Structures are given as structure tokens and as C-alpha cells.
Amino acid sequence: MLRKPELLSKKLGLTFVNPQLFVTAITHRSASSKNNERLEFLGDSILGFVIAQKLYDRFPDASEGTLSRLRASLVNEASLADLARKHKLGDYLNLGSGELKSGGFRRDSILSDALEAIMGALFKDQGIVACQQWIETLFAEKLENLSVNSGQKDPKTQLQELMQAKKLDLPEYSLVSMSGLSHEQTFTVKCTIPILEEATVGAGITRKKAEQASAEQMLKLLNKVNP
Prior knowledge:
The chain is mostly helical.
């Protein structure tokens, strides 16, 4: 273990009645048979419940689909790993030698699992109220920055799913032009789909952004044609 677990516990604002629960929560299966997998399973369920309830209260007019999308944007692996890195969780993980050598302390899956395991450990140690309060504090900034449009699927994904739903060929994107110096180029991309003769064009500082822009224009065009 790179640093003492009590230092991390204090950093996270936690005090455990049974400190061994916290030690287990930051122990990866590569280090011991007594690891955080079961606590992670528990923490994952608690986290989903706490965030779901918070979103339900905060967005009273949001549909079930919107609430599910918002929850997914908060409790996904990347989001949890981001919070874990913010608190330098990787510096305290108990990993086996193989995971240490391969940089497991930086891996999103290991970081996010450990954070959920800490939630499970806190629940077992102090119950749901203490766990809920800590999770809400942990996610306070992310929740504050959330709106009903957060986590919205990007235009390319929306257009692709629309074509798939209609059982049509996927949209095609072709580069029309590139201009500007190498460090400040502008890409122009054309988007075509099987059900419209008219193409749409979008521009951006990367080809990907240009494709997104052209897909967005195509979605707008489809809404005009099929309001």
C-alpha cells in the first residue's frame, strides 16, 4: 500500500467504527482474497439509489428517460474515476505487484470500483443516512452543474440511431475541405443519408467536430421535412 489508509479516510472526511472495512474497500483482488469486490457490488447499488432519489427531487418535471440519462452521466465509470483522481485515491490502493507494474492505480475501472467499495463500506459501518450524506457531498459539484440537457446524446449518435431504427444504411460523412495553418485548421464535412437527396455541411476545428456539426444540420433538416 503506497500510503496509510487512515490518511485517505481523513481526506475523504470519513471516520470508521470498523477501520478494517475501509482497508478492504481499497484492496484490489490482485492483492488479497479479502478484497473490495463484494463491497463494490453493494456500493454500486447504493450509489444508484442515492443519485436516483436526488435527481427525482431536483428535476420534478423530467421524464423517466431523462432521469435515467442523467443518472448514467453521473455514475458511469469515467465520472467515478474522475472523482477518485480528484481525491488521489490511486495513491492509497492496495494492489498486487502485477497491477502496480501495469499502472492499475491509474485505471478507470479500478478507481471507480474502489470508490463504490468505499460507499459500500460506509453503509456497512454506519448505515444508509451517513452513506447518503457522504455521496451527496461527494457529487455536490457534479449535481450543481447538471441540467436536463446534460448527457444528451451527440448529433452523430442521434442520427445513426435514427437510421438504424428505420432499418436504413448509416449516414455517410465525406471531407469537403481543409483550410488554415496546421495548428488552427478548419475542416468542412458533408453528411448524406439514404432518405434525403439533399446533403448537409458542417465545419469545425477537427474532422470529428465537423462531422458532428453536419449531423446536427441533418437532424434539423429532417425535422423540417418530417415535423
